[in-house]
Amino acid sequence: MLEVVSEARSHGGRQLVLRHGSRATGTPMTFSLFLPPQAEQGRVPLVTYLSGLTCTHANVTDKGEYRAACAAHGLAFLAPDTSPRGEGVHDEEGWDIGLGAGFYVDATQAPWSANYRMWTYVTEELPALIAADFPILDMGRQAITGHSMGGHGALTVALRHPGRFRAVSAFAPIVAPSEVPWGEKAFSRYLGDDRASWARHDAVALLKSGARTADILIDIGTGDPFFAEQLTPERIERAAAAAGQPLSLRRQEGYDHSYFFISTFMAEHLAWMTERLR
Amino acid sequence: MLEVVSEARSHGGRQLVLRHGSRATGTPMTFSLFLPPQAEQGRVPLVTYLSGLTCTHANVTDKGEYRAACAAHGLAFLAPDTSPRGEGVHDEEGWDIGLGAGFYVDATQAPWSANYRMWTYVTEELPALIAADFPILDMGRQAITGHSMGGHGALTVALRHPGRFRAVSAFAPIVAPSEVPWGEKAFSRYLGDDRASWARHDAVALLKSGARTADILIDIGTGDPFFAEQLTPERIERAAAAAGQPLSLRRQEGYDHSYFFISTFMAEHLAWMTERLR
Q1: B147, B60 in Cβ contact below 8 A?
Q2: A interface mutation test: which of B14, B61, B63, B65 has the most A CBs within 10 A?
Q3: C-alpha B41: how far from chain center
Q4: Mean pLDDT, residues B65-73 taken together
Q5: Model confidence pLDDT, tens digit, residues A42-101
Q6: What domains, with CATH codes, occur in chain A?
Q7: Which amino acids of B are annotated catalytic?
Q8: Contact A65/B62, CB-based, under 8 Å?
């Protein structure tokens, strides 16, 4: 049952914020959905955007500058939250674990496993929910993108669902979480010591083990403070080249990790997706 | 002396947030300034945006979606705060008075008069400061705009500085503050009982008393909850028609008072200004 938190007309379409009780996480979950003006005439493709550490649906909804391009191209734009939230949801100190930091996995380790089931949420429950409630969404024409932790989410979700997405992009993604501090911290807590379970949530490891997806476009700023230690774009360049996975990875001179960076290239990503969603 | 609070590359230009000690308000003041890529080659026109009630520089900087258009047209974009802030600055309960609600006047009534001198700040001190610190700004080519209380500010600043601005726009402005609850509350506290002093800060009253400015473009949403009681667009339509002041006022179907509305029409306003700044 979807509750409308807010609705506003924007760029000729409707910017919705919606809430529902999630079976996957056992909590209320809030997300935003932009419906372009074309959705009043017929079915429209869906772009899912997975957000980064500390974010909710609101960051990209406020700062992402996606609505003008979505209205121009006729794209719906879905932005889920990054973790379960609410009373009783386990958390720990630090903005890189717990609330706002679900890392798009189903936690197997207590106490995280009670609620931190973002993989099931974003890959199964939420798509089924909006497909049922918004029949104007053409779930046969989907693209996915994300930022940082959400770029990791977009890449791994796409690599493990071949055929679901016609285009995959990311802004400054964590491409090899098993090998960098953010991912090691999160995966050891959520997934435990079994590194085989980590590999199923690691885009570089998935490429090495034979997974493939549609064309990938990645932008990363050369002024990103997390470039070398956490994002390591050279790892996915090497893995994609070895695997024959189409990848365009662009180093954008002087850009940082913020929405000032994301919003700069958002319209290009959406135009690039549109070519592949036709 | 300008302190750089933050700087980020965005849309090919530089989004700055700056702070300085203000002589006008007697407090530190923070503002944002976007410099488009063209500012690396030569002088660029300046658009000043005055924000609405409760806002700081940050709202439009985050949500205004102005950078893509400013980069396309080569416009700098300045966003001041809406009031003095800090310890010792008087405030009262309510988001429509005091902090975040300076109404772009120089208060004459104690205790407000100590710091609430936003008229002098936005018309004199801040323009002089940035002109000196950023010689790439072409202060001979300026436009001004604003939202709600800031639309009131933009209209009154422009009407009282004929020749300074080549284009004037506003999003859902308060056009006749002397005659609506927000303005009556603010003006009675800041300016006292002398209604002649109110008229100098009332766009409709200024038009009636002979003030004129460059072409005015106003957008207002028909779904704006403040449309009839606070914004009263028909008052400026009548006054501009009687005065022969060029005004294009558009009622935008279904839009509300939020940045979802402002961001929708921001690019059009900036393109419209650009034609007049050539």
Answers
A1: yes
A2: B65
A3: 28
A4: 98
A5: 999 999 999 999 999 999 999 999 999 999 999 999 999 999 999 999 999 999 999 999
A6: 3-277 (3.40.50.1820)
A7: 148, 224, 257
A8: no
CA-CA distance, A202 to A46, in Å (whole number)?
24
Angle at A156 between CA A152 and CA A157, to 5 degrees: 115
* Pairing mode of beta strands B13-21, B28-35: antiparallel
Contact criterion met (CB < 8 Å) for A9 and B223: yes
Angle at A22 (CA atoms; ends A19, A26), nearest 5 degrees: 125
3-state secondary structure of A33: strand
C-beta atoms surrounding B189 within 10 Å: 19
The residues facing A20 across adjacent strands are: A29
B33 pLDDT band (50/70/90 cuts)? very high
**Tokens 């990503």 label which residue?**
A269
pLDDT tens profile B102-154: 999 999 999 999 999 999 999 999 999 999 999 999 999 999 999 999 999 99
> Scanning every residue of chain B, which has its alpha carbon at the shortest distance from the alpha carbon of A264?
B11
Among the partner-chain residues A8, A255, A267, the one whose CB lies closest to the CB of B256 is: A8
What is the token pair recorded at B3? Answer: 């302190």
Average of pLDDT values for B230-234? 98
